[in-house]
Amino acid sequence: MERISVVGNTGSGKTTLARQLSERLGFPLLELDSVMHQADWTPLAEDDFRQRIATFMEANSYWIIDGNYSQVLDTVWSKADTVVWLDPPRLLNMSAVIGRTLVRLFTRRTLWNGNHESWSNLFRFDPQKSVVAWSWRCHGERRSQFQKAMGDPRWKHLVFIQLSDRKESSHWLEMLPL
Questions:
Q1: Residue-wise DSSP of 32-96
Q2: DSSP H or E stretch at residue 100
Q3: Alpha-carbon torsion angle 59, 3, 22, 8, nearest 10
Q4: What is the pTM for the complete model shown?
C-alpha cells in the first residue's frame, strides 16, 4: 500500500479513517473537500480541481486521498494501488452524518476555507442544500458504484478493502504493519 484512495458515502468516516491511516503510515493526506469547497462554499473550477489533485499525486511517492468526487476519481484510481471503501449500513451512516452535523453546528467548527455547516443541513430535503439529504440520496448510489468498480477490469490493479463499520475499520487499521 503506497497510494491509497479512501472512499464512501458522506458521513461514512472517510476523513477520520484517512487521518488515522496517514498518522499510522506517515503518508501525506489530501482531503478532497478541502480543495473543492472554497470560501462561501464556492466550488473550485473543475480544471483547477483536477490540477491540484494531479500536482499532489505527482509530488508524493506515497499518499492518501480522502474523497470520491466523480470529476477526479478516475485520475486518482489510475495512480492508486489500494481503495479503502467505507460502506456502513444506511441507518448507521445517517446516524453518523446527523451527529457530525449537530456537533459542527453547536461548536461552530470551521471547516475548509472558513466554511461552516448550516442549520438547513438538518431541515431541508434538497440534496443540493443539505448534507443529510445528500447522504441519504447517495447511499445506495455509492454502494452500487463501488460494487461495480470492484469487478471492473479498468481497476484490476487496485486492491479493494471494504469496511462496514468503525469497529471493523479500527481493527483493520491496527492490523496494518508499521
A1: HHHHHB-GGGPBPPHHHHHHHHHHHHHH-SSEEEE---HHHHHHHHHH-SEEEEE---HHHHHHH
A2: helix 90-107
A3: 120
A4: 0.92
Q: Are 85 and 168 in contact (CB under 8 A)?
A: no
Distance between CA atoms of 13 and 123, rounded to whole angstroms?
Answer: 22
Contacts of 116 (CB under 8 A, 6+ apart): 104, 108, 109, 110
Q: Length of the chain in residues, anyone?
A: 178
Q: Residue 135 corresponds to which amino acid?
A: S
The answer to whether residues 4 and 65 touch, using CB atoms and an 8 Å cutoff, is yes
Who contacts 124 (Cβ-Cβ below 8 Å, separation ≥6)? 130, 133
Percent helix, strand and coil across the chain, each to the nearest 5: 60, 15, 30
Q: Are 172 and 163 in contact (CB under 8 A)?
A: yes
41: left (phi over 0), alpha (psi -120 to 50) or beta: left
Give tens-digit pLDDT for 60-83: 999 999 999 999 999 999 999 999
Please give the full DSSP string across 140-153, using - where no structure is assigned: HHHHHHHHHHHH-G
d(CA 128, CA 120): 11
Question: Strand, coil or helix: what is 73?
Answer: helix
CA separation for the pair 76, 127 (Å, rounded): 25
- pLDDT of residue 1 exceeding 80: yes
* Residues whose CB is less than 8 angstroms from the CB of residue 155 and which lie 6 or more positions away in sequence, other chains included: 77, 83, 149
